[in-house]
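Notes on consecutive records. When two proteins share a document, each keeps its own sequence and its own token line. Never mix them. Below: protein one.
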Amino acid sequence: MKKIYLWAFSSAFALNACAQQQQNPTIVKYAKLITAEDARKHLSIIASDAFEGRETGKPGAEKAANYIAAEFKRLGLQAPVNGSYFLDVPLTENALKVTDFTVNGKAFTYTKDFYLTGTYPDNNLTANTVVFVGYGTDSEIGSTDLTGKILLWVNEDKPEAGSTPNTSYRMTAARNKIIKNLQSKKPLAILAANPGIAAALSRFGSSIASARLTIKKDDAPSSNTNAPVVNVTTELANELVKASGKTYDQLKTASAEAATPALSVKTDVVLNYHTEKKDVKAVDVLGYMPGTDLKDEVLVFSAHYDHIGLNRDPNAKDKVNNGADDDGSGTTGILEIARAFSQAKKDGHGPRRSILFLGNVGEEKGLLGSEYYSEHPVFPLANTITDLNIDMIGRVGEEYIGKPDSANYVYAIGSAMLSSQLHEIGENANNTYTKLHLDYKYDDPKDPNRFYYRSDHYNFAKHGVPIIFYFNGVHADYHQPGDEVSKINFPLLAKRAQLVFYTGWDLANRDKRPVVDGKISEETR
């Protein structure tokens, strides 16, 4: 949040003026083409059972891609990939098979007690010692030789006086640095313990166990030669340090209070795994509208059309994770915005800048489609002025349930990270037209939820392209079969999409592109 207010004083007058601007009836006319009724029509198809949860590499995702491309064609958008609406995203499916994980002869279960992601050489690891390295700081490691050892590491930010540590199991920039430092010591494996792992596995275990997709790179090594990072529950961690006479929490507390030296514990560990690979077909879907006098500059509207596919629970009554909100709602929003711009162009009000409508694949697999586009852009990123990314705009998030403005808000993330001017443009559009409550709670790179890093805009931001990420927040049906069309608030979806349209209209037609005056954070490089 601090970044927002660094320039707030200098822009206060401008923002006040924005709130008083008169609405442009031409823009309002086309924004009204974004309707709840039309959104329902699209989403009822995209998030239907027939699309089988739109998992990347599966038939349902291909059906969704074909539907989006057909809509782009119907609207008169150009096919910019050598005459095609599809940008091939070459992926490899890596199915990690963990055959054994035992501690002192006690067997632990993949996706119940631990999980391992990534691509590694086939390996059979055995050890009779575990080294507890606390939070992994240099003072804790000291001169301890970690070569060929199995490490137990506290996957949390170390407490510091005057600040609240991030205790989420999701990696932070600081913890990624620690991991790289630990891997440089050439251990056999790093076991990352966190109290949130058990709940995460209970809720998302089936998807965690699914094969991982990666972008196929001909010049890349076939697998990661670094020590694997295995996420483990605290129950498993307790077994690993049992012979020390102390619990994992006791050791963690001691490490938090002082620079406790690394502790070697006599523990027998066996970890065996291998990876099975195959190529996977996937596409981003691109629709292009050329501009007029500023056509060499490009504005991007993005949303991911993929979801997590079929429910792998054999006892489940509902077999399809429909993903109506995540991100059928964003995909629908893009189609509605494209419809409004297309009609405007037909009526002689086409945009000055070119517009790319980008349906990304593989977001749920690690932002893969947007990563591939950012590394193989159809239009140069240097000429890309902004990415307006929509990911979940059809529901009321858990923090707004029961609040007076529950049907009139949206989280806006990242607008001031790289461009203070882009933030003003977003505020201006909202103050003049939609008057939603713009919530900036998550507009912080240090947000424990890490939303700034968790959707497709991130792959533009890390290349210095300003972004705004529109998001309604998580809810009880997030990544669950209950994310159904019947639970979508279509008037709210349409209003949020209208805000993105108004913001995009300004960006596409203003004289100057938004100035980039923010600093790319170290994590986005």
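Protein two starts on the next line and is unrelated to protein one.
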Amino acid sequence: MTWDNGSGPLAVLELLAQEAPAARIDGLLHEAHRAGADEAELAQLAKAVELARSVQAAAVRGRTREAALAALVDTAHDLTSPYDLDSLLRVIARRARRLLSFDTAYVSLRRADGTSYVRTAEGETTALTSGLELGTGQGLGRLAQERRAPMWSADYLDDDSFPHGPAIDAMVRAEGLRAVIAVPLRHGDSILGALYGADRKVRHFTPDEIGVLLSLADLAALGIQQAGLLERTRDEVTELERFGSATNTALTRVRHLWDCHARLIRLVLDGARLSTVARAAADALDGVLQVRDPGGRPLTGAEAAETLDEEAEEAVTRAALLAHTGGVPVPLPGDVWVAPVTAGAENLGVLVLRASAPLTDEDVRLLELAAQSVAALLLIQRGTAAAEGPVHDELLQDLLDRPHRSDLHLRERSRRLGMDLDVPHVVVVARPEGGELGKAVAWAGSYAYRCGGLKGVRRGCVVLLLPGSDASAVAREVSAKLSPLLGHPVSTGAAGPAERASAVAGVYEEAARCLDALTALGGVGGTASLRELGFLGLLLSADHDVDAFVASTIGPVVEYDATRLTDLVRTLEAYYASGASPTHAAEALHVHPNTVSRRLERIAELLGEGWQKPERALEIQMALRLRKARAVLARRAADVTDLPGHHT
């Protein structure tokens, strides 16, 4: 192409329209250089080429997301079909391999004693076979299951950032694997196993790829639970058929369960609306059914709540916690049932059923299957968001574990999840004192959802990142809402606000230190923030904000002096220096004792009641000394600056 003045940007557009490769578009710059284009023309063309690259990159990301979404939807459809466990796991591994172009993919299942074994593998493998014992093991899979989060390595055997196990290393070496990623198969508080993908070349996994595999793992865990229920039902049908007419009634009920579930699955596969699936489930269970989101808001079936009074609503809220903690439907008086809607470790909401008659065992099982069908449909409906990146818990984990990642990257991920990390957020670390961590986590998921925040679990405590600027007020609200639900006191430490993504980790550490200090001071069941801890909070703070401490402690007195030209600060200093004696303070200030008394009355008005109590008095004296020290240091710095020959 011959360079022509002004034709460069148009040529870029032409190549974009032709979907030409990036190399051809970049070549325009070389042609312009060779043709002698001036600097202005080259700058204009370079800008056009840069924009074209952005357009091409966005198009590639869009196609990738569309492909991932289509594959996830296909997977959701596959997993809602009535597979036995082994067939299901082969589908999972095959789909993972195809979805992310792995050389091999495999699934491990976890036994009750904590050991794991490979249940199925896809791809050309020799050492990696079904039945391979992983033991309690080391490596990425063990870490992924312990941390309930994805773990990956671009080059497994050369990566010493995690503990290695000889048996697993030998298998990786025998297979010639380099890059490995493991994501946990989570169901509520339980870990079922792990889903792995591996390549025989070095590979750096992108956030989108990790997010897609997480979504697939959550769908897989949902399918595994469903396969178990269906297998039990199938076995019961077989057993009942052996006994013939003597058990006709029971056989009819189990077949009804099977038929109803098949009908719900067909609706999910046909892309029915959530309200349609909920109505079908309600008809099968002969009741009124409501689907609620994690925050307790109705998604369908508002009429189901019309018969519930305020007391019943509170009971439903408590039952939702129990349902998510135990992973099973919870009955309430009046033939009301609350069933958890869960995918992986994620709380998607609950089903609230008002039945017209007591439920049989088969009805309860159908309610569980209905909840799983609703979970699959919700995952399909939000598939685009699922394909774009890791879910909320993984974002909080990255904010805490990888604070040095770019704010831009973390802000983009938070934006996809509907959060704005550029507004102030506080961190609350809550520790249930009567155990019940599972219930607390379930409640925290709903609460964070309602508030537009994030929740996680660290060191046996619930961690909440919530919008707000008053850490103390947010912590008190968390404690006030959570303690009655658990029936035990909840100790909370809080800090913040953080006003950028990279500051969250530091604020979390301050909140954790506040909780530790609260415990050390015997304040179990209370609330502590840097502000509430006073001068101790100053010592615990990462930035040691002396000015903020002074302002919060004696700020009103300092401001009064500045605006009224009074001498209250100096009076306070003399008062404490004389052992809290107004008479001796008056002598030191060379004023009448009545003058000191009037000044102390004014100070009491400014600082409020209790300013002379020992704990408060200690903080005031520390603030006075810090302010005086800062003033002395500032004067010395000014004197040095004024010395002859000093250069800034």
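For the record: DSSP finds 23 helices and 16 strands in the chain.
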